[in-house]
Structure formats: structure tokens, C-alpha cells
């Protein structure tokens, strides 16, 4: 399965990880480059389980555990963001494998009940949480690999698109894509442009208009995923055999080109990675606290 492939693939992370920019956390006014054992254990919550692979130093396995289908509710998104932030603070953690602990599904996408019959204030808070996890994963200094071990529509597809490398279980019953059109929802422009940065303008245009869901084979052909691995019972551990991507996953700058502390380094990395001008402008605006959550209807 996909997770088995990601774990084997993570063994090739060492080349990139040795080049990763230093990442320090600020605790009580002083720099604390490593998380304590208690802080690391606290990365695991009711809906997000974080384990560290003993065979691959510096790689965290982040498993989504929100039954039945890992719907992205406000609570779940908040826990995901906190878990990623804690790993960012841990200098010894240099990579994340994002996967699902639920059978046959990676993530079913946004929880529509968070938008139905809710106040404008709640909707704004929800969309800010969606933006937050997108920014944290897409702009992370860490290598992030998606082990897609089930279907991944809509917001679930967005989660995988924030990752550097996507490995999917080769099961024709699984599907992946931004299918919001089929649900009568307009995908926000930052959903669109994240996909466009991955598969290109024309493929994204067609996919969004049709609300297209791709089979694993189709996703590989269009570039939505990078590798397929056989689905097997038990823990997923297939070999991917691609080490070259590891050396080029996250754009980097030398320290004398980056001003300020770790937050500034993350901002530079995100703005390098987000190539579309409109997407860059949105990220710049999002850095200011007075900017409200971006609701799709306002895109």
C-alpha cells in the first residue's frame, strides 16, 4: 500500500534532510531547537496520530484518525495545524509522511456541515482553518510526502497537493481530484492554483469544470500523483526507488538571503513555491491578522 511505499521512500530523505535550513523554536524568549519527549508525545491527539519511524531518523508519520472518512472539520483542521506546527518546532524532525488511519479513504474533504446553517463568524473561522493547514503544509521547511491509501476527493485532494511527493495505492476503486463542481461548490482560487502548479493550466481547467475524479492510473498519467504502489493487507511498505526528487523537494535560499527568524524563512519558502501572482498576493494578505477567512463565494 501507499504508506509502505512512503516509508521505504523516506529512507532516501537523508540527502535533502542534511541540507534543510536550521529550524528553531522560541520558548519563553529563548531558542529551543528540539522538542522534549513530552512535547513530542503531545503531537498525538484524538484525531491526529504522530509516530517517529525508528528506522529513518527525522521522519514523522502523521496519520489522520477522524472516523469515518477524515472529513476536514474545524476541530480536525485545528488539530492537524497544531501537529504540523509542533513538528516544525522540532529541529530533529525533517520530514513528514501524511497518511490515513481510516480504511479505504485518505480524506473525504471539507466537512460541509461546517458551512450549513452556520453564522458568518463560524464560516470565517472554518475557512481560516482551511487556509492555515494549506499554508503550513505547502510552505513547510520539512519534506512532506502524501501516502494516499484511499480515495481523496475535494479538500482531501488539496491536502495531498500541498505535499512534495504523492504516492497512491493502485486500487481502481480509489479516486482523487477536486470535484467541488459536482457538489455545486466553487473551488477557491487557491485550490485551483495549487492544482495548476502541479498538473498545468489546461488539465486543471478541464478537471475543475467537470468536477473530475481520477482513478489512480489516470492520476499518475496526468501528474496528480507521482507513483503508484500495489495495495497489500497490513502495513504499507512498498519501495518507490526515487531518490533524486528528495534532493530538490523544497526550494531553498542561503541564510544571508533570508532576513529574520524562522517565520521569515517559511514565508520565503512559501512565496518561492507559490508561483502564481494571484496566489502570492493572497498569501501576503493572509499574513496580516485583519484579513478574514476567504470564503469560496468571495473568490
UniProtKB/TrEMBL annotation:
It comes from the Eukaryota. Residues 234-299 are annotated as: Disordered. Pfam families: ECH_1. It is found in: Mitochondrion matrix. The keyword 4Fe-4S does not apply. It catalyses: (3Z)-decenoyl-CoA = (2E)-decenoyl-CoA; (2E)-tetradecenoyl-CoA = (3Z)-tetradecenoyl-CoA; a (3E)-enoyl-CoA = a 4-saturated (2E)-enoyl-CoA; (3Z)-octenoyl-CoA = (2E)-octenoyl-CoA. One of its GO terms (biological process) is fatty acid beta-oxidation. Residues 275-291 have a biased composition (Basic and acidic residues). The keyword Mitochondrion applies. One of its GO terms (cellular component) is mitochondrial matrix. Pathway: Lipid metabolism; fatty acid beta-oxidation. Its main location: mitochondrion. One of its GO terms (molecular function) is delta(3)-delta(2)-enoyl-CoA isomerase activity. It is an enzyme of class 5 (isomerase). Keywords: Acetylation, Fatty acid metabolism, Isomerase, Lipid metabolism, Mitochondrion, Transit peptide. Key enzyme of fatty acid beta-oxidation. Able to isomerize both 3-cis (3Z) and 3-trans (3E) double bonds into the 2-trans (2E) form in a range of enoyl-CoA species, with a preference for (3Z)-enoyl-CoAs over (3E)-enoyl-CoAs. The catalytic efficiency of this enzyme is not affected by the fatty acyl chain length. PANTHER family: ENOYL-COA DELTA ISOMERASE 1, MITOCHONDRIAL, ENOYL-COA HYDRATASE-RELATED. Belongs to the enoyl-CoA hydratase/isomerase family. Homotrimer. This is Enoyl-CoA delta isomerase 1, mitochondrial.
Amino acid at each position: 500500500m501507499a504508506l509502505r511505499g512512503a516509508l521505504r521512500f523516506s529512507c532516501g530523505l537523508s540527502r535533502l534532510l542534511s541540507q534543510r535550513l536550521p529550524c528553531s523554536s522560541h520558548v519563553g524568549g529563548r531558542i529551543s531547537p528540539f522538542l522534549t519527549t513530552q512535547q513530542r508525545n503531545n503531537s498525538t491527539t484524538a484525531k491526529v496520530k504522530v509516530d517517529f519511524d525508528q528506522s529513518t531518523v527525522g521522519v514523522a508519520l502523521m496519520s489522520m484518525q477522524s472516523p469515518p472518512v477524515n472529513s476536514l472539520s474545524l476541530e480536525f483542521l485545528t488539530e492537524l495545524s497544531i501537529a504540523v506546527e509542533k513538528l516544525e518546532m522540532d529541529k530533529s524532525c525533517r520530514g513528514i509522511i501524511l497518511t490515513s488511519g481510516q480504511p479505504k479513504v485518505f480524506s473525504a474533504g471539507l466537512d460541509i456541515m461546517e458551512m450549513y446553517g452556520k453564522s458568518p463568524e463560524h464560516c470565517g473561522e472554518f475557512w481560516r482553518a482551511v487556509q492555515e493547514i494549506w499554508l503550513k503544509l505547502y510552505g513547510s521547511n520539512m519534506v512532506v510526502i502524501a501516502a494516499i491509501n484511499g480515495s481523496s476527493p475535494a479538500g482531501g485532494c488539496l491536502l495531498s497537493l500541498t505535499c512534495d511527493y504523492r504516492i497512491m495505492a493502485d486500487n481502481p476503486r480509489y479516486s482523487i481530484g477536486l470535484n467541488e463542481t459536482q457538489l455545486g461548490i466553487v473551488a477557491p482560487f487557491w485550490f485551483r492554483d495549487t492544482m495548476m502548479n502541479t498538473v498545468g493550466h489546461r488539465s486543471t481547467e478541464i478537471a475543475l469544470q467537470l468536477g473530475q475524479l481520477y482513478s489512480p492510473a489516470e492520476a499518475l498519467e496526468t501528474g496528480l500523483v507521482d507513483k503508484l504502489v500495489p495495495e497489500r493487507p497490513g502495513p504499507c511498505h512498498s519501495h518507490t526507488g526515487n531518490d533524486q526528487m528528495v534532493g530538490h523537494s523544497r526550494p531553498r535560499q542561503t541564510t544571508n538571503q533570508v532576513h529574520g527568524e524562522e517565520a521569515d524563512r517559511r514565508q520565503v519558502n512559501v512565496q518561492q513555491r507559490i508561483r502564481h501572482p494571484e496566489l502570492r498576493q493572497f498569501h501576503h494578505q493572509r499574513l496580516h491578522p485583519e484579513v478574514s477567512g476567504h470564503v469560496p463565494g468571495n473568490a
